[in-house]
Design a protein that fits this description.
By secondary structure, the chain is an alpha+beta fold. It contains ten helices and eight strands. The protein has a four-stranded mixed β-sheet, with helices on one face. It has a four-stranded antiparallel β-sheet with strand order 2-3-7-6, with no helix packed on it. Strand 4 and strand 5 form a beta hairpin.
C-alpha cells in the first residue's frame, strides 16, 4: 500500500531507510507474536531487546549518553512501523519519549549518566505517573505532595493508570511542592526507584489486551534523597510539558501504526474475498470507506510529522498545539479505520484468526489517553482560537 510520506520530498532518505529497517524487524515478529505474548501473560522482551540492539529504542536520546542523537521524529517512526506490523511497544511512549526526554533536557549530569544509557540500550525502563484517581484531566488538582525533611524529600499520594510499573526500574512521579512564599502548590518531577519503601503498586484489571499492565500506585511517606528531584523546583510546568508533548506525538504514532495495520488487513481481505462475481473490494460501499480511512491516516501522519519537527526544532509552544492536533487526528482516524476494517471482514473481523477484534478496545485508548479528545478540543478552542474558557 502506498504511503505519501515515503515520497523523498516529504521524508528524507535517512527516514525512509529507518522505516524500512524497523518494518523488516517488526515483520519477523508481527501480530501473532504479539497475541501470543498477551495470551501467555508475558512481555515483548525479545522484540524489545532486538530493537534495542539495533539502536531503535534510544534513537531520540543524546549520543554522549548512548543514544542515537536524533529526535522524537525518528522515535515516532519506529513506533509507527512497529504498530503497522501489529506489534507496537507501548513503553517506547513512556521510557525514552517522556522520561528520557525530561531527564535529557532537565536532569543533572549525575541523573543523565545514571539513566540515559540504560534507557537508550533498553536495559532499563522508566514508567511515568501523573494521573490520579480524583484528578483525571485536571492536573491542577494533583494531590501527590512532596515536602522537604532535612536533606530528603518525602512523597505522599496516589496515581492511577501507570503503565509498566512492574517492568520499570523507576517511575517518574509528578508531585507538587508548596511555595513557601505563596502557599500554592507547584508541580515537580521525582525519580522513584521501584523497590523504594512505601512505594506500593496494585494492578488495575483491564479489558485491554496488551502486554503492558496498568497499575495504581500508593506513595506512603516515600523518602527520597535530594537528587531524586529532576530539574529545578521552580520550573516544574516547563519540565512537565517538555515530556507531555512527546507523549502526544508518540500516542499519535501508536494510533497511526494501529490504523495502518487494520487498513492493510481489510484491503487484503477486500481484494481476495469473493462472494459474487467480483471481489468485495470492487463494491463502492466497501471500497469508499476504506479509501476514506486511508486519507484520514495520511492527514494525521502529516500533522504528526509537523508536531515532531516543531518539537525537535525546540519550538515548544507551536509543538504543543501541533502535538495535540496530531494526537486527536490520529486517534479519530484509528478508531474509524479499525471499525471499518472489522466491518469489511464481517464475522471474520471478530475472530481471533484475523487479529482485528482486540483492536476495537485498543483503538479507544488513543481517544482517551494521555488526554481525552474533549480536553484537546478545549485546548484548541482556548489556545488556538482565543475563545473563553468554560472552566
Amino acid at each position: 500500500m502506498s504511503n505519501a510520506l515515503s515520497n523523498p520530498v516529504i521524508e528524507s532518505e535517512e527516514h525512509r531507510a529507518l522505516r524500512a529497517a524497523v518494518a523488516a524487524l517488526a515483520k519477523r515478529y508481527g501480530r501473532e507474536y504479539f497475541a501470543t505474548v498477551v495470551a501467555e501473560g508475558r512481555h515483548t522482551d525479545e522484540l524489545w531487546q532486538e530493537a534495542a540492539k539495533a539502536g531503535y529504542l534510544g534513537v531520540n536520546l543524546p549520543e554522549e549518553y548512548g543514544g542515537g542523537g536524533a529526535g522524537i521524529t525518528e522515535l515516532s517512526l519506529v513506533l509507527e512501523e512497529l504498530g503497522a506490523a501489529g506489534c507496537p511497544l507501548l513503553m517506547l511512549v513512556v521510557s525514552p519519549a517522556i522520561c528520557g526526554t525530561v531527564i535529557a533536557r532537565f536532569g543533572t549530569e549525575e541523573q543523565k549518566r545514571t539513566w540515559l544509557p540504560g534507557l537508550a540500550d533498553g536495559s532499563r525502563k522508566m514508567a511515568f505517573g501523573i494521573t490520579e484517581p480524583d484528578a483525571g484531566s485536571n492536573s491542577h488538582r494533583i494531590t501527590t505532595t512532596a515536602r522537604q525533611d532535612g536533606g530528603d524529600w518525602v512523597l505522599n499520594g496516589r496515581k492511577i493508570f501507570v503503565s509498566g510499573v512492574d517492568i520499570a526500574d523507576a517511575t517518574l512521579i509528578v508531585g507538587r511542592t508548596e511555595d513557601a512564599r505563596t502557599g500554592k502548590l507547584k508541580p515537580c518531577l521525582f525519580i522513584v526507584p521501584r523497590e523504594t519503601p512505601g512505594f506500593g503498586r496494585s494492578p488495575v484489571p483491564m479489558e485491554l489486551a496488551a502486554p503492558e499492565k496498568q497499575f495504581e500506585l500508593t506513595l506512603d511517606d516515600v523518602r527520597l534523597p535530594a537528587d531524586a528531584l529532576v530539574g529545578e523546583e521552580d520550573a516544574g510546568l516547563l519540565q512537565l510539558f517538555a515530556g507531555l508533548n512527546p507523549e502526544r506525538i508518540m500516542t499519535a504514532a501508536f494510533a497511526l501504526g494501529m490504523g495502518r495495520y487494520a487498513l492493510a488487513r481489510a484491503v487484503d481481505y477486500a481484494r481476495t474475498r469473493q462472494v459474487w462475481k467480483e471481489p468485495i473490494g470492487a463494491h463502492q460501499a466497501l471500497a469508499h470507506p476504506l479509501a476514506q480511512c486511508h486519507i484520514e491516516l495520511e492527514l494525521a501522519a502529516l500533522m504528526m510529522r509537523k508536531a515532531a519537527l516543531l518539537y525537535d526544532a525546540g519550538d515548544d509552544m507551536a509543538a504543543g498545539e501541533a502535538a495535540n492536533m496530531a494526537k486527536y487526528a490520529a486517534a479519530e482516524a484509528a478508531v474509524h479505520t479499525v471499525d471499518q476494517a472489522v466491518h469489511t471482514l464481517g464475522g471474520n473481523g471478530l475472530t481471533r484468526e484475523y487479529g482485528l477484534a482486540s483492536l476495537v478496545t485498543a483503538a479507544r485508548v488513543a481517544r482517551i489517553a494521555p488526554v481525552s479528545r474533549e480536553m484537546i478540543l478545549n485546548f484548541v478552542s482556548h489556545q488556538s482560537l482565543g475563545l473563553p474558557k468554560s472552566y
